[in-house]
Every structure is written in C-alpha cells, then in structure tokens.
C-alpha cells in the first residue's frame, strides 16, 4: 500500500480505511484461531513442524510481490527518517527486549525468544497500520523493506550477542535460513512483480489474507510444540510481549521527535519500531531454540495488530479533535 488518504477520492479513501481496519482487527482473530487449533490438536499439528520454513517463504514472497524499486528510492531522497527508523529498529527493540527480560526475570527459554523477537525486522502489517494512523506510508514501506533486507546479517548477529547467554545458538545456520526464507523469496517476489504486474495487481486484494492465513498456520504449528507449557507460561509471555511492543512504539516515536520530524513520520517510526516480523521470529525460535522460545513470537503476532489498531484510532481521534478546534475559514465576498 503506497497511497495515502489525501491521494484518494473521499469515497474510495473511506472504503480503503474500512478495509484496512477490518484487516488489522481480523488478522489477530485468525491468528488466535490458529493458536487454539495448535493447542487443542497439538499431536496432529506438531507433525507439520517441517513446513514452518516453506510457509515463512510464502509470507515473504507475498511481501516481495507488493514491493517496487521505487519503494527503495526514499533511501536516497529522504535518508534521515529511513536511516533513523532502521537504526531504531535494530537498537531500540533488542535493548527493550533485554530490559523486559530483566524487569520480569524471565526464564532462559522465554528470555531468548523475547530477544529474538526484538532482533527481527519490521512486520509487514506495519504498512497497513501506518496508513490507518495517517502516517507516512511510503516511508513505512521503505523502512520495512530495508530492515528486512538487513535481517540475514543483523538478526542472527544481534541474537547471538544478546541471547547467546541464555542458550547455545547457531548464528551462521540462522543467517543461512534467513537468506533462504526471507531474502530469496522477497527478491523473487520483486522480480515476479516486475515481470507480471497485471497478475500481481489482480492478486493484490487477496495477498494480505494469504499472508495472514499462512502466519496463522505457522502459529498453530509453533503453539503445538509447546502446548503442554502454555498455561504455565502464557501470562508471563503476554506481559513480556505487551511491554516490549509498547516500549518500542513509545521510544520509536520519541526518536523521531528528537530529530523534530513531522507528525506522520513520528507515527510511522513508532509503528515500524514497535511492530516486528514476529512470524519469522517464531519460526526461527522453533528451529534454532526450542518450542517454548517460539511462544513470544506467536503471541506478538496477535498483540502487535491489536496495539497497532488502537494506536491508529488514537492518532485519528487526535487529528479529528485538532481539526474541530481550527477556526472556520472566513468567506471573502
């Protein structure tokens, strides 16, 4: 999504916003359903654990289909907000993960999972939330794209550095996996999008739903691996996820405010920093850590859509109140 409400006719803008809200609010419901299926049918679902990486590849391929070379042009046209957002992504969220681990005194498995979520790139749902919050959508797409392309290097390096104290990690293996399930599918999606633009345009309405249904299946598989420990660890993981997400959004907004960037950019930076590619984190945790470490990623997949929708609603309410306080223009006769 690269259009803002000001670039669309009023009626179309309303329909697009309505569709965006439905998507953001329905996505967590679908993912919760996936989690419930994984919990109550843990035996059969856990047998599909080998499908997690191919499914993540599908999610990243759909992301690549929606990207265009112009989405990367902002790196050169407006480098400050892009660089600030990406640095904040890979500094604020890992550090906040450490802070949450310390604050809640999390056990090693959950601590490692929370840190991995913090070291993941930005989430694709952030673009929709930026649109709903009247943020800078083009900037959101660019930030997500750049942080995703940097993930094969930064995610395993930061995870090894920060989470290696909690359990042994294969950083090189993780890096290779991220190349295979993130970088290659995204680049392939971009190429297919350039070669078959008509087909991609026709498929664009269903791509977000395909991505969400795939993440829901991933969550079901991840939850099935630790179904016996969810009741015991569930509330602790939820508390960690909520704190991590809210700290990230608040500090992301503050970082943009520090550089006196416009309000839409502040909102976008908050969203980009606070919303993670938690499906990727859950999949990597399940493969390179253990099933319990994958729980924070699964829970984050639900929560960040809920907090994103709330944030967007607050932003729009602020805009409406500000507009209501503005004096009516005086007609000149």
Automatic annotation (TrEMBL):
InterPro entries: BilAc:Na_symport/Acr3 (IPR002657), Bilac:Na_transpt (IPR004710), Na+/solute_symporter_sf (IPR038770). It is a multi-pass membrane protein. It is found in: Membrane. Its main location: membrane. Pfam families: SBF. Keywords: Membrane, Transmembrane, Transmembrane helix. This is Bile acid:sodium symporter family protein. The chain crosses the membrane at residues 21-42, 48-67, 79-104, 110-132, 139-162, 174-195, 207-227, 233-259. It comes from Brevibacterium daeguense.
């Amino acid at each position: 999504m690269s259009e803002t409400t000001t670039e669309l006719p009023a009626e179309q803008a309303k329909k697009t916003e309505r569709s965006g809200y439905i998507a953001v609010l329905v996505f967590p419901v679908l993912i919760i359903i996936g989690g419930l299926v994984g919990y109550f049918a843990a035996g059969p679902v856990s047998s599909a654990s080998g499908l997690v990486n191919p499914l993540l590849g599908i999610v990243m391929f759909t992301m690549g289909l929606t990207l265009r070379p112009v989405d990367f042009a902002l790196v050169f046209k407006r480098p400050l907000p892009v660089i600030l957002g990406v640095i904040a992504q890979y500094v604020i969220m890992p550090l906040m993960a450490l802070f949450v681990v310390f604050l809640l005194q999390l056990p090693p498995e959950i601590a490692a999972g929370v840190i991995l979520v913090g070291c993941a790139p930005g989430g694709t749902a952030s673009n929709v939330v930026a649109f709903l919050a009247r943020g800078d959508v083009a900037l959101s797409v660019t930030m997500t794209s750049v942080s995703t392309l940097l993930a094969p290097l930064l995610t395993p390096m930061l995870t090894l550095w920060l989470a290696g104290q909690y359990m042994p990690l294969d950083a090189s293996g993780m890096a290779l996996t991220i190349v295979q399930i993130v970088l290659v599918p995204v680049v392939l999606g971009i190429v297919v999008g350039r070669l078959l633009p008509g087909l991609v345009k026709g498929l664009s309405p269903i791509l977000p739903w395909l991505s969400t249904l795939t993440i829901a299946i991933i969550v079901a598989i991840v939850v099935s691996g630790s179904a016996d420990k969810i009741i015991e660890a569930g509330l602790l993981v939820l508390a960690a996820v909520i704190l991590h997400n809210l700290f990230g959004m608040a500090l992301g907004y503050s970082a943009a405010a520090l550089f006196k960037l416009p309000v839409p950019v502040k909102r976008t930076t908050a969203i980009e920093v606070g919303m993670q590619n938690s499906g990727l984190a859950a999949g990597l945790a399940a493969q390179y850590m253990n099933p319990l470490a994958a729980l924070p990623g699964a829970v984050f997949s639900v929560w960040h859509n809920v907090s994103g929708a709330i944030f967007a609603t607050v932003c729009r309410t602020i805009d409406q109140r500000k507009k209501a306080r503005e004096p009516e223009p005086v007609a000149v006769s």
